[in-house]
Amino acid sequence: MRWVLLVLFVLLAACGGGRAPTPQPRPQTDIRQCLMGLERAGVRYRSLPDRHFGGGCQATGSVQLLDVGVPVTNLTALTCPMAAGLADWSRTVRQIARERLGSDIAKIESFGSYACRPVNNQTGGRLSEHARANAADIAAFVLADGRRITVEHGWGGTDPRVRDFLRMAHRAGCRRFAIGLGPDSDRFHYNHFHFDMGRGPYCR
Fold first, then answer.
1. What crossing angle do the helices spanning 28-40 and 80-101 adopt, rounded to 10°?
2. Which one of 15, 82, 143, 175 has the lowest number of neighbouring Cβ atoms within 10 Å?
3. Non-local CB neighbours of 55 within 8 Å, separated by 6+ positions
4. What is the reported pTM?
5. Residue 28: is its pLDDT beyond 90?
6. Across the strands, what pairs with 107?
7. Please, what is the Cα angle at 194 between 189 and 104, to 5 degrees?
8. What are the two backbone dihedrals, phi and then psi, of residue 22, each rounded to the nearest 5 degrees?
Protein backbone atom coordinates (compact mmCIF):
# COMPACT_ATOMS: atom_id res chain seq x y z
CA MET A 1 0.00 0.00 0.00
CA ARG A 2 2.83 2.34 0.84
CA TRP A 3 4.39 2.03 -2.62
CA VAL A 4 1.01 2.64 -4.29
CA LEU A 5 0.66 5.92 -2.41
CA LEU A 6 4.20 6.87 -3.39
CA VAL A 7 3.47 6.27 -7.08
CA LEU A 8 0.29 8.35 -6.85
CA PHE A 9 2.21 11.17 -5.19
CA VAL A 10 4.85 11.18 -7.95
CA LEU A 11 2.19 11.19 -10.68
CA LEU A 12 0.31 14.08 -9.09
CA ALA A 13 3.52 16.06 -8.68
CA ALA A 14 4.40 15.47 -12.32
CA CYS A 15 1.08 16.81 -13.59
CA GLY A 16 0.98 19.71 -11.13
CA GLY A 17 -2.22 18.52 -9.55
CA GLY A 18 -4.10 19.46 -12.74
CA ARG A 19 -2.92 23.09 -12.76
CA ALA A 20 -1.45 24.81 -15.80
CA PRO A 21 2.32 25.27 -15.64
CA THR A 22 3.49 28.65 -14.40
CA PRO A 23 5.02 30.76 -17.23
CA GLN A 24 8.77 30.93 -16.82
CA PRO A 25 10.37 34.38 -16.62
CA ARG A 26 12.66 35.46 -19.41
CA PRO A 27 16.35 35.06 -18.62
CA GLN A 28 17.95 38.33 -17.52
CA THR A 29 20.56 37.99 -20.26
CA ASP A 30 17.82 37.98 -22.91
CA ILE A 31 16.27 41.08 -21.41
CA ARG A 32 19.61 42.90 -21.27
CA GLN A 33 20.33 42.03 -24.90
CA CYS A 34 16.89 43.30 -25.91
CA LEU A 35 17.42 46.57 -24.05
CA MET A 36 20.78 47.02 -25.70
CA GLY A 37 19.07 46.51 -29.06
CA LEU A 38 16.61 49.28 -28.25
CA GLU A 39 19.46 51.62 -27.39
CA ARG A 40 21.36 50.80 -30.58
CA ALA A 41 18.21 51.57 -32.57
CA GLY A 42 17.92 54.98 -30.88
CA VAL A 43 14.70 54.07 -29.08
CA ARG A 44 14.10 55.93 -25.82
CA TYR A 45 12.42 53.91 -23.10
CA ARG A 46 11.93 53.65 -19.36
CA SER A 47 12.55 50.34 -17.61
CA LEU A 48 9.69 49.29 -15.35
CA PRO A 49 9.80 47.17 -12.18
CA ASP A 50 8.50 43.62 -12.41
CA ARG A 51 4.90 43.45 -11.23
CA HIS A 52 2.52 40.55 -10.55
CA PHE A 53 -1.16 41.42 -10.26
CA GLY A 54 -2.69 38.01 -9.54
CA GLY A 55 -4.66 35.64 -11.71
CA GLY A 56 -1.71 35.28 -14.07
CA CYS A 57 -1.64 39.00 -14.92
CA GLN A 58 1.88 40.38 -14.85
CA ALA A 59 4.33 42.83 -16.38
CA THR A 60 7.86 41.46 -16.11
CA GLY A 61 10.95 42.49 -18.05
CA SER A 62 8.86 45.36 -19.37
CA VAL A 63 9.49 48.91 -20.53
CA GLN A 64 7.51 52.00 -21.41
CA LEU A 65 8.36 53.44 -24.80
CA LEU A 66 9.15 57.15 -24.68
CA ASP A 67 10.27 57.91 -28.24
CA VAL A 68 10.09 55.74 -31.37
CA GLY A 69 10.41 58.67 -33.76
CA VAL A 70 6.74 59.66 -33.38
CA PRO A 71 4.42 59.69 -30.36
CA VAL A 72 2.38 56.55 -29.73
CA THR A 73 -0.53 57.23 -27.39
CA ASN A 74 -1.79 55.14 -24.46
CA LEU A 75 1.15 52.74 -24.20
CA THR A 76 2.06 51.57 -20.71
CA ALA A 77 4.01 48.39 -19.95
CA LEU A 78 5.35 46.32 -22.85
CA THR A 79 7.71 43.37 -22.76
CA CYS A 80 11.02 44.36 -24.30
CA PRO A 81 10.60 42.14 -27.40
CA MET A 82 7.13 43.60 -27.96
CA ALA A 83 8.49 47.13 -27.56
CA ALA A 84 11.33 46.42 -29.99
CA GLY A 85 8.92 45.04 -32.56
CA LEU A 86 6.62 48.04 -32.19
CA ALA A 87 9.48 50.50 -32.60
CA ASP A 88 10.70 48.72 -35.74
CA TRP A 89 7.17 48.49 -37.11
CA SER A 90 6.59 52.22 -36.58
CA ARG A 91 9.62 53.07 -38.72
CA THR A 92 8.34 50.89 -41.54
CA VAL A 93 4.81 52.29 -41.29
CA ARG A 94 6.14 55.85 -41.56
CA GLN A 95 7.91 54.89 -44.79
CA ILE A 96 4.74 53.29 -46.14
CA ALA A 97 2.77 56.44 -45.33
CA ARG A 98 5.27 58.62 -47.18
CA GLU A 99 5.14 56.38 -50.23
CA ARG A 100 1.40 55.65 -50.32
CA LEU A 101 -0.14 58.76 -48.79
CA GLY A 102 2.46 61.43 -49.55
CA SER A 103 2.85 62.45 -45.91
CA ASP A 104 4.78 61.34 -42.87
CA ILE A 105 3.04 60.11 -39.74
CA ALA A 106 2.93 62.62 -36.89
CA LYS A 107 1.28 60.37 -34.29
CA ILE A 108 0.14 56.77 -33.87
CA GLU A 109 -2.94 56.22 -31.71
CA SER A 110 -3.28 53.02 -29.73
CA PHE A 111 -5.98 51.54 -27.52
CA GLY A 112 -3.23 50.53 -25.09
CA SER A 113 -0.92 47.69 -24.19
CA TYR A 114 -1.13 46.13 -20.68
CA ALA A 115 -4.61 45.17 -19.46
CA CYS A 116 -5.51 42.36 -17.05
CA ARG A 117 -8.30 40.70 -19.03
CA PRO A 118 -9.26 37.62 -21.04
CA VAL A 119 -9.06 37.43 -24.83
CA ASN A 120 -11.54 39.84 -26.46
CA ASN A 121 -12.83 40.71 -22.96
CA GLN A 122 -14.95 37.55 -23.03
CA THR A 123 -15.66 36.29 -19.51
CA GLY A 124 -14.27 32.81 -18.93
CA GLY A 125 -11.87 32.99 -21.85
CA ARG A 126 -8.15 32.35 -21.66
CA LEU A 127 -5.90 35.15 -20.55
CA SER A 128 -5.02 37.72 -23.20
CA GLU A 129 -1.43 38.56 -24.08
CA HIS A 130 -2.39 42.07 -22.95
CA ALA A 131 -2.44 40.62 -19.43
CA ARG A 132 1.27 39.82 -19.83
CA ALA A 133 2.20 43.23 -21.30
CA ASN A 134 2.86 41.34 -24.50
CA ALA A 135 0.42 43.03 -26.89
CA ALA A 136 -0.65 46.39 -28.30
CA ASP A 137 -3.75 47.57 -30.16
CA ILE A 138 -3.31 50.18 -32.92
CA ALA A 139 -6.36 52.25 -33.86
CA ALA A 140 -5.34 55.24 -35.98
CA PHE A 141 -2.61 57.29 -37.63
CA VAL A 142 -2.44 61.09 -37.64
CA LEU A 143 -0.50 62.37 -40.66
CA ALA A 144 1.77 65.40 -40.76
CA ASP A 145 -0.62 67.06 -43.25
CA GLY A 146 -3.47 66.84 -40.72
CA ARG A 147 -5.33 63.79 -42.02
CA ARG A 148 -6.39 61.13 -39.51
CA ILE A 149 -6.54 57.58 -40.83
CA THR A 150 -8.54 55.17 -38.67
CA VAL A 151 -8.66 51.41 -38.99
CA GLU A 152 -12.41 51.51 -38.38
CA HIS A 153 -13.29 53.81 -41.29
CA GLY A 154 -10.28 53.41 -43.58
CA TRP A 155 -10.06 49.61 -43.91
CA GLY A 156 -13.26 49.37 -45.95
CA GLY A 157 -13.41 53.02 -46.98
CA THR A 158 -13.64 54.61 -50.40
CA ASP A 159 -10.05 55.85 -50.73
CA PRO A 160 -7.93 53.08 -52.31
CA ARG A 161 -4.69 54.69 -51.12
CA VAL A 162 -5.87 54.56 -47.51
CA ARG A 163 -7.03 50.96 -47.91
CA ASP A 164 -3.63 50.00 -49.37
CA PHE A 165 -1.77 51.82 -46.62
CA LEU A 166 -3.69 50.07 -43.85
CA ARG A 167 -3.27 46.64 -45.41
CA MET A 168 0.45 47.20 -45.87
CA ALA A 169 0.72 48.41 -42.26
CA HIS A 170 -1.12 45.30 -41.09
CA ARG A 171 1.12 42.96 -43.12
CA ALA A 172 4.23 44.76 -41.81
CA GLY A 173 3.01 44.01 -38.30
CA CYS A 174 2.48 40.35 -39.14
CA ARG A 175 6.12 40.12 -40.22
CA ARG A 176 7.32 41.38 -36.83
CA PHE A 177 4.86 39.90 -34.35
CA ALA A 178 3.69 36.37 -33.68
CA ILE A 179 0.04 37.39 -34.00
CA GLY A 180 -1.48 40.08 -36.21
CA LEU A 181 -5.25 40.62 -36.22
CA GLY A 182 -7.30 43.21 -38.09
CA PRO A 183 -10.84 43.88 -39.32
CA ASP A 184 -10.85 40.72 -41.47
CA SER A 185 -10.15 38.48 -38.46
CA ASP A 186 -13.37 38.78 -36.44
CA ARG A 187 -15.95 41.25 -35.12
CA PHE A 188 -13.76 42.17 -32.14
CA HIS A 189 -11.10 43.81 -34.33
CA TYR A 190 -13.24 45.97 -36.61
CA ASN A 191 -11.55 49.14 -35.38
CA HIS A 192 -7.93 48.24 -34.62
CA PHE A 193 -4.90 46.07 -35.30
CA HIS A 194 -3.94 43.69 -32.52
CA PHE A 195 -0.27 42.68 -32.43
CA ASP A 196 1.28 40.37 -29.86
CA MET A 197 4.27 38.15 -29.17
CA GLY A 198 2.29 35.11 -28.06
CA ARG A 199 2.00 31.77 -29.82
CA GLY A 200 1.99 32.02 -33.59
CA PRO A 201 2.48 32.69 -36.33
CA TYR A 202 -1.01 33.81 -37.23
CA CYS A 203 -2.01 36.74 -39.44
CA ARG A 204 -5.54 37.64 -40.33
1. 30
2. 15
3. 116, 127, 131
4. 0.82
5. no
6. 142
7. 105
8. -75, 130
